[in-house]
Structure formats: structure tokens, C-alpha cells
Design goal:
single chain; 503 residues; alpha/beta; Aspartate Aminotransferase, domain 1; Aspartate Aminotransferase, domain 2; 2 domains; four-stranded parallel sheet; four-stranded antiparallel sheet; 15 strands; globular; disordered C terminus; binds pyridoxal-5'-phosphate
């Protein structure tokens, strides 16, 4: 007999006193959690500030957390050395260049990418890598840009470049029931690649809204049908192994702060050399040219051969922080991505089961989850809304304020993912069109209404050092909504809450 989540996760009362009992039950249901024990010690030693400050951090998809030792190692490196701009050629510059290139090698190793096949381009963030591709992909009229509807806005924005160059833009929709796509529809659209044209297919390895993980075998299928593939891995790589010796997407944008918290301001674009060679940069900048003349107004870009990544790193890279990328990657390697992945899987499974099971006394669900309810092919990001005993959604702003008061860091809004948001909230094309009507005097108000009310969701995400108390205490928070009606939840003055908390 199949056991449903409802059988496993009975609606219980959640209270701090019952946490130990709940933990014992959790270990019984998720025995693999025990194998991730090393993360508890790590949290104590390296991330102690979470517990000193009593913070419940559930926004790993927004940004990862850094370990104390990452900071110490980086500061020591800077304090004990003299570093100059790597574009110069002198001892301090060479020392810096050496470390930047070492970090680049470390990125290759971490993602198991061959330097014969891939290039690592340092960018300010994932968005920076996406813009490099979008502005330089050689779309011509009749070419095709295909993308799943659950892309982040930094991918959606590429449609502007594609459209301006006359390429056709097609969205592959996501289904309401699980926010995945219909594979037959995907196949049909992949068959529409323009023969001998430039066809770009973009999808997230993991949706930053629903946590859905799309199959990586789409990459080969798309290649076989004449597409370049842009695989947005920003939300995937913090808790999943990306092995570029096993799958071969053409463009992979990443933000490092999402993996190990520090430093912000650096990402990379991993690009296959043959795909990169297709790109046509719309300008040149310091660092990307072989020679330029102001009299003749001519220039040669760096492009082919060994210079290929330099042709895409505009100006001076964030050189003092790049060594911290190597420190961060080594930190994750020491822990083991598989351990992080396993912990996230266990905690996500428990959260999904409990969030689904918790009900008002009248039997109505409190939580409406958007996306898959099981841990199969999904990551540790959960989007949802909370409803009252009459089935009316609690205002997300209220929930956010109350969570902040309880020192829970979660996120509310659309998460830069309008596709998943529109489908989850049944916002029709016609309703969206009202936002964009030229003469609608209420246009701004309508947009705000849709964005902040009709389409707003709550998102929690677990990661590197999440533990059972984090998710249990979150469920205690959800439990407080039981049998409440929306108006009974008082609006919290968040400025007061933050003041009360002290410095
Ligand atoms: C899936 C996905 N793609 C792209 C981005 C953009 O990342 P960044 O803001 O670091 O450029 C994000 C950020 O949350 C993301 O989750």
C-alpha cells in the first residue's frame, strides 16, 4: 500500500517543548540526515553567529552564508601581501595575476569542466554572465530564442536583445499542477530550430521560485536539434553538483555568493569555446582589445585562442576578491557538495510534508505550496502562500513583518520570476495586459496591485548550514496562523521591531 504524506505527517501542534520528539520522528523518517552530521559541528564553529543571534535563516536562494574561516583566510592574504592591478606587469601585479588564475583553475576543478572545452569568465554576478551572452549572441531575423516560462528576469531580459535583432522569441509554458513543462511541447518547439540559423534555448537547472529541477538531458537533445543551450545554474549550484564532464551546456552563469556567501560582487560565465567564438561583442573595453587607434578609429578585439576569456572580462576584474572565490570553493569541497545536497533534501522533504499537512481545525490547509510536493527532481526552495480558516490568503507583507519579528529570514514577492508567479496565481494574459495599456491612468496602481498582492508569494529556502531547529521553528511560526482569520493578524511596525532588537 502506498503511504501518502498525509499519513506520515499528521497535523500536530508545534511548540518548542515538542521539538526533541519531532526531531526523533524526523530522524526515523529521514535516516540519511544522520550522515550529514558534520554540518552541525561546522555550524557551531564557523557560523556561530546564527545561533548567538537566534536567527532563523531561510533565504539561501537569495544568498548563501559565509564561514568565519573564509573571512580570516581572505583578510590574512590581503594583510600579508602587496597586490597590484593584474593588467600591469610588475611583481605585485604578477602576484595578483597568479592568484586570479589559480582561482580560475579552481572553478574548472569544482565544476569538473575541461579547460580544453570550457572557458571561465569572471563577471560581477550571474546577471553579468547572462548579459554577456544576450548582447553578443548573433541573432539575425528569423533566428529563434526559446526559453522556459520559469526563468529569472535576468534570462527573460535576453528577449529584448533577441527581439531587437529580429529573432523570434518563444516561451515554453509551465503547468499549473507542478510548475514543470510538458516534454512533448518541448520536443515540438525544439524541432522548430532554424536550420543553419542561430538558435538559443535557455532554462534554469533549478527554478528560483518553485525549486523545480529540469532535466539536464535536455542539453544533448537541444544540441542534436541545432540549439545552443544556456543553462542558468545560479539557483542550482549552491546545493547540487554540477558536473560539466557529464553534461555540456554552452553557457552557464553563476553567482558565487549564492554558493558560499562571501564575497559578493563576483560570478562567472562558464562557456564552451566553440559557442563563445560565435558571440559578437557589441563594444570593446579596457582589457578586451589587442590594439585600438583613436586616429584611425579601428581596433582588434582579443578573441581567438588563449585570449578568449579576456575578450569578455570588461575592464579590471574584481581582483582583490577573486582569491576569496578559491577559498570559498575549497571550503565547499572540504564539506562535500553531496553532504550539503543530502541535508537539503531531508529538510525539504520534512518541510514539504509538514507544510502540506498542517490544517485549520475546520480541515482547510494553511499552506498552499506552488510546485512539486515531493523531493524528486526539486531543490530546497519552496514557494507558497498562507491562507486563513476561510481560505483567504494572508497578506504577504504581514507575513513578512511577522516573520521578521520572529527573526525568520524569508522572502516575499515575485522573486524576479514572473512566469512561475503568473501561473501559480492564475493571473491571466488579459489581467497582465492591463498593466501595459498605454492610456490606463491606473497603470501604476494596477502593476503594484498585481505585483504586491495578486501575484505575491512567500519563499523559504534551506541550504548549507540549515538544521532541524530552523525548519521546526519555522513550522511553529506557521502554526500560529492556525484558526486565525486574516484580520486578526495585527500589522507589525517593523521599524519598531528592529529598534527593539538593539544594535
Ligand atoms: C535562477 C537565477 N538566475 C539568475 C539570478 C541572478 O543572480 P544575480 O542577482 O546574482 O545576478 C538569480 C538570483 O537569484 C537566480 O536565482
Amino acid at each position: 500500500m502506498q503511504i501518502s504524506d498525509d499519513d506520515i505527517y499528521q497535523t500536530t501542534d508545534y511548540s518548542p517543548e515538542q521539538m526533541d520528539t519531532a526531531f526523533a520522528e524526523f530522524n526515523r523518517i529521514q535516516p540519511e540526515y544522520e550522515t550529514t552530521h558534520i554540518l552541525d559541528k561546522l555550524r557551531e564553529i564557523e557560523y556561530g553567529r546564527l545561533d548567538w543571534q537566534d536567527q532563523i535563516y531561510l533565504d539561501y536562494t537569495g544568498g548563501g552564508l559565509y564561514a568565519d574561516s573564509q573571512l580570516q583566510k581572505h583578510v590574512n592574504l590581503l594583510r600579508c601581501n602587496v597586490f597590484g592591478n593584474p593588467h600591469s606587469q610588475n611583481p605585485t601585479s604578477s602576484a595578483m595575476t597568479h592568484l586570479v588564475e589559480r582561482a580560475r583553475k579552481c572553478v574548472f576543478r569544482f565544476f569538473r569542466a575541461s579547460p580544453d572545452e570550457y572557458v571561465v569568465i569572471f563577471t560581477p554576478n550571474a546577471t553579468g554572465g547572462l548579459k554577456l551572452v544576450g548582447e553578443a549572441y548573433p541573432f539575425t531575423p528569423g533566428d529563434h530564442f526559446l526559453l522556459t516560462a520559469d526563468n529569472h528576469n535576468s534570462v527573460n531580459g535576453i528577449r529584448v536583445f533577441a527581439g531587437k535583432k529580429g529573432a523570434k522569441v518563444t516561451y515554453l509554458p509551465v503547468r499549473l499542477q507542478d510548475l514543470r513543462v510538458d516534454e512533448d511541447e518541448l520536443e515540438r518547439l525544439l524541432d522548430q530550430a532554424r536550420p543553419d540559423g542561430h538558435n538559443l534555448f535557455a532554462y534554469p537547472a533549478q527554478s528560483n521560485f518553485s525549486g523545480v529541477q529540469h532535466p539536464l538531458d535536455w542539453i544533448d537533445r537541444a544540441h542534436d536539434k541545432g540549439w545552443n543551450v544556456l543553462l542558468d545554474c545560479a539557483a542550482f549550484v549552491p546545493t547540487n553538483r554540477l558536473d560539466l564532464s557529464k553534461c555540456h551546456p554552452d553557457f552557464v552563469p553563476i553567482s558565487f555568493y549564492k554558493i558560499f556567501g562571501y564575497p559578493t560582487g563576483i560570478g562567472c560565465l562558464l562557456a564552451r569555446k566553440d559557442a563563445l567564438n560565435k558571440l559578437q561583442r557589441p563594444w570593446f573595453a579596457g582589457g578586451t582589445i589587442a590594439i585600438v587607434s583613436t586616429q584611425d578609429e579601428k581596433w582588434y578585439c582579443l578573441h581567438k585562442g588563449k585570449d578568449v576569456y579576456e575578450a569578455f572580462e570588461d575592464g579590471t576584474v574584481n581582483y582583490l576578491n577573486i582569491p576569496a572565490v578559491e577559498i570559498g570553493l575549497r571550503h565547499i569541497d572540504r564539506i562535500g557538495m553531496e553532504t550539503i545536497h543530502e541535508r537539503v533534501r531531508c529538510l525539504t522533504g520534512w518541510l514539504l510534508g509538514n507544510m502540506h499537512a498542517i490544517k485549520h481545525r475546520n480541515g482547510r490547509h494553511i499552506v498552499k505550496i506552488y510546485g512539486p510536493r515531493g523531493t524528486e527532481k526539486r531543490g530546497g526552495t519552496i514557494a507558497f502562500n498562507l491562507s486563513d480558516a476561510k481560505g483567504r490568503s494572508f497578506d504577504c507583507g504581514w507575513v513578512q513583518d511577522l516573520a521578521s519579528k520572529a527573526k525568520i529570514s524569508l522572502r516575499t514577492g515575485c522573486f524576479c520570476n514572473p512566469g512561475d508567479g503568473e501561473v501559480s496565481h492564475n493571473i491571466t494574459r488579459e489581467r497582465m495586459a492591463e498593466c501595459f495599456e498605454g492610456n490606463n491612468r491606473n497603470q501604476e496602481g494596477t502593476c503594484k496591485l498585481i505585483r504586491d498582492k495578486e501575484m505575491a508569494s512567500i519563499r523559504i529556502s534551506v541550504g548549507l548550514v540549515s538544521n532541524f531547529p530552523d525548519v521546526y521553528r519555522f513550522m511553529c511560526f506557521v502554526n500560529d496562523f492556525r484558526d486565525k482569520v486574516a484580520e486578526q493578524i495585527p500589522r507589525v511596525d517593523i521599524s519598531r521591531v528592529l529598534r527593539d532588537r538593539g544594535p
